[in-house]
Write a structure and sequence with these properties.
The protein is an alpha/beta fold. Helices cover 46% and strands 11% of the residues. The chain has helices at 3-10, 19-26, 30-40, 43-50, 57-67, 111-122, 136-142, 158-170, 189-194, 204-212, 214-222, 239-242, 246-252, 260-269, 282-290, 312-323, 338-346, 356-388, 393-399, 430-439; strands at residues 69-71, 85-87, 90-92, 96-98, 126-129, 148-152, 175-179, 274-279, 295-298, 328-332, 351-354, 404-406. The strands form three sheets. The protein has an eight-stranded parallel sheet. It has a two-stranded antiparallel ribbon with strand order 1-12. Strand 10, helix 17 (338-346) and strand 11 form a beta-alpha-beta unit. Helix 2 crosses helix 18 (356-388) and helix 17 (338-346) crosses helix 18 (356-388). The longest helix is centred in the C-terminal third of the chain and has 33 residues, at 356-388. The chain is globular and about 80 Å long. Bound molecules: flavin mononucleotide. Flavin mononucleotide binds at residues 49, 62, 99-102, 129, 131, 151, 179, 277, 299, 301-302, 304, 332-335, 354-357, 359.
């Protein structure tokens, strides 16, 4: 038998011709990409992405609350399925945005520019962190057609604030993302235990970690030092910019937490859309709507700030009801599957947003990695909608509440016909017992 014949029998796969092809053979889910990122990054850097505040209850809740909702698909034809939608008056190829993440070049030397290009190709907006490691202008030049938003850290100095807003506007950012969840920095104990600082300081452990992750170490050493260049014009030279733990120092010093008056003032200074990020209290959502805020991002900051916080999904139905369509609603925290996005939209969100998933892609394979994560999520959304029986995002939002049920709602099920009413009362039937035990699992 000749080699050619063996090949035709064994269907031998040749080597992948591109990073994208390699990823499509190895990564079938965001979780696969997460594992790849964990291998590429030093443990302390990976933990910086992964970690949450204190006991990480908020972080875990972000995942479990998605599992508490189950689909009730409807039967019927699904034709011309489309993920396209609109957000803040502009088109999006799917109802997803990329959330701001500070320090992005720590994970891959191409950092924010790689993320911006992948977001542009996928047709979705990207929120650049004020504490990005690439300037806002550089990101604009790298992806001029991208719908880009800026995650402003408002300062108490109104002159400086106006200068920053003018700069953001001149660099083509259409919307501001303003946090209402950062009055203090969450206590991320993994970072303290790991001795992690931003930018990383050189310690014996750093050298060992670098040697064990040579690809990351080479990228890190061969490129510009990790810094926050958007701040160069804002922070005078001095002790602040040379503090090893400059991130925390900056946030605790120069940048003031906002209150409602600051937001009122910001509303008058910025003509474009404002997204309030970190709203979970329906009262605040209504205040935001009253103030003329365009959108809220319901979020517990990926579980990185206050621990024991409600997840976005826990409070979404209440917020949807309280705001009655007066603000657009974006949901983030724990989204790892297209089906998670479908659940949030079925409950009334306009779009979802992700942080860690795109950072896994970036750490694993730069722009191609981010693109692969977005491709996976789009394919999962499409498949979920097809199986659920909806063709468009509008249909999902209109009919969604009939297609999804929380585990606590299980008791409201009508009895299946196979249990004749003469034999079982509602409280005795096997179905009722099942529902009963299901909602009381500790
Ligand atoms: C490494 C990292 C850095 C972050 N930096 C910021 C930031 O600068 N500003 C901000 O509003 N949110 C920041 N976040 C939170 C995200 O914007 C987003 O709310 C969160 O990651 C969503 O949860 P997910 O990671 O489970 O998708 C950061 C998150 C991570 C993982």
């Amino acid at each position: 038998m000749r080699i050619k014949d063996i090949r035709s029998l064994a269907a031998v796969q040749g080597p992948a011709r591109s990073v994208a092809e390699r990823l499509s053979r190895r990564c079938y889910s965001v979780e696969d990409m997460r594992k790849l990122a964990a291998r590429r990054l030093p443990g302390s850097v990976f933990d910086y992405i992964e970690g949450g505040g204190e006991d990480e209850v908020s972080l875990r809740r972000n995942r479990t609350s998605f599992d508490d909702w189950a689909f009730l698909p409807k039967w019927g034809s699904v034709e011309h399925l489309k993920l396209g939608s609109t957000l803040l008056g502009g088109p999006v190829a799917m109802p997803l945005t990329l959330s701001p993440t500070g320090g992005t070049r720590l994970f891959h030397p191409d950092g924010e520019t790689a993320v911006a290009r992948a977001a542009f190709e996928a047709g979705i907006p990207y929120g650049l962190a004020h504490l990005s490691t690439t300037t806002m202008e550089h990101v604009s030049a790298a992806a001029p057609g991208l719908r880009r938003w800026f995650n402003l850290e408002p300062t108490a100095d109104k002159g400086l604030l106006q200068a920053v807003l003018d700069r953001v506007s001149n660099a083509g950012y259409e919307a501001l993302v303003v946090n209402v969840d950062c009055r203090a920095i969450g206590h991320r104990e993994r970072d303290y235990r790991n001795g992690f600082t931003a930018p990383p300081s050189i310690k014996p452990k750093t050298v060992i970690e670098g040697a064990l992750h040579p690809r990351w170490a080479l990228g890190f050493l061969a490129n510009d030092a990790i810094a926050f260049p958007n701040l160069d014009a804002e922070i005078p030279e001095g002790p602040l910019s040379s503090t090893p733990d400059m991130w925390r120092t900056l946030l605790a010093g120069q940048y003031e937490p906002t209150d409602w008056d600051d937001l009122r003032d910001l509303r008058t200074r910025w003509n474009g859309p404002i997204i309030l990020k970190g709203v979970v209290n329906p009262r605040d959502a209504v205040m935001a709507a009253d103030l003329g805020i365009d959108a809220i991002q319901v979020s517990n900051h990926g579980g990185r700030q206050l621990d024991h916080m409600a997840s976005a999904l826990d409070v979404l139905p209440e917020i949807v009801e309280a705001t009655a369509g007066r603000v657009e609603i974006i949901v983030d925290g724990g989204i790892r599957r297209g089906s998670d996005v479908v659940k949030a939209l079925a409950l009334g969100a306009d779009a979802c947003s992700i942080g860690r998933p795109y950072l896994y892609g970036l750490a694993a394979a730069g722009q191609a990695g981010v693109a692969h994560v977005l491709k996976l999520l789009a394919a999962e959304m499409t498949r979920t909608m097809m199986l659920l029986g909806v063709s468009t995002i509008q249909e999902l939002r209109d009919e969604g509440r009939d297609l999804i049920r929380h585990r606590s709602e299980a008791n409201t099920c009508t009895l299946p016909t196979e249990f004749p009413p003469a034999q079982y009362s509602a409280s005795q039937s096997p179905a009722a017992e099942l529902a009963y035990s299901d909602t009381r699992i500790p």
